[in-house]
Every structure is written in C-alpha cells, then in structure tokens.
C-alpha cells in the first residue's frame, strides 16, 4: 500500500501515543493541521487496506493484572481463520504470523492469570491447537515504532 501524506503523518506522530483527552481524533487533526473527518477517513482507509489492525492502549502487564506471550502451530491453510479467531478477544494484541513451526504469536493481557488460562483453553477447544504459553519472567523495553521519515 502506498501511503498518502496524511497516513504517513498519522503513523509517524501517533504510533507511540494518542492524546489522552475527551476528543483525541480532533486533537490529532489539530496537531496535523487538518479536520477530524480527515483523520477518521484516513484511519478507515488504513484499516480497510489492512495497514491498521487496532487503535488502543498496551498496558504495563504488572499493573493490568497478568499477561503472557502465546503461540500456535497452525496449518498454513488455516492461518488466516485462526488468526481472526484469536483477534476476536479484546485481551489480544500483537497478533502476528512468523515463519516457524509455531507460526502464530500473540500477547494476552487480562485481570489475572486464571482469565488468561480460560482464553487459552477456549482457543484450544475452538481450534484444536494447543497454545504454547510463555509468561514473561523479565521485562525488556524496546521501541516498537518505525520511523517513516515524515514529520507533521
């Protein structure tokens, strides 16, 4: 997908944080010098093109309750179907495919460990695939953003 200038500016400026206010999209528009409707239309285009998967917070796992990194070994012909099923949970973020025996990886965050286990059990029952459950033992902070070389 070729990104237009507004898309590039939105990604560059807001991939690390949205304004914490009553009208964040209006605030984003003001920062970028456009209208709120332009921001909303641009985000919709990015979503429809598959370039945007979600807008939402990523919580510090120790403050949000519990989290785990999970993986599934999914037959390639079922990968998209299983990925959609996994993404139906609001507790899931960073759901992505990898070239490995365990080819679908995702992070679960929830109020407590039992809640995460319930989701993993549901996924196993629904998909017939046993999740690899890798709870975090030590936190490492890395920048998950990517510069597009465009500045508002």
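^ Assign residues to that structure.
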């Amino acid at each position: 997908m070729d990104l237009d200038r507004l898309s590039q500016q939105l990604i560059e400026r807001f991939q690390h944080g949205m304004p914490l206010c009553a009208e964040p999209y209006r605030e984003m528009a003001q920062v970028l010098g456009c209208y709120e409707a332009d921001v909303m239309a641009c985000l919709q285009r990015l979503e429809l093109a598959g370039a945007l998967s979600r807008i939402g917070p990523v919580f510090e796992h120790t403050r949000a309750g519990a989290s785990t990194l999970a993986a599934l070994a999914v037959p390639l012909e079922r990968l998209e179907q299983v990925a959609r099923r996994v993404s139906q949970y609001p507790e899931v973020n960073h759901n992505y495919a990898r070239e490995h025996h365990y080819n679908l990886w995702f992070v679960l965050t929830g109020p407590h460990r039992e809640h995460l286990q319930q989701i993993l059990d549901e996924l196993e029952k629904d998909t017939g695939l046993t999740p690899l459950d890798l709870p975090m033992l030590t936190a490492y902070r890395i920048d998950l953003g990517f510069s597009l070389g465009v500045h508002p």
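The two ends are 20 Å apart (CA to CA).
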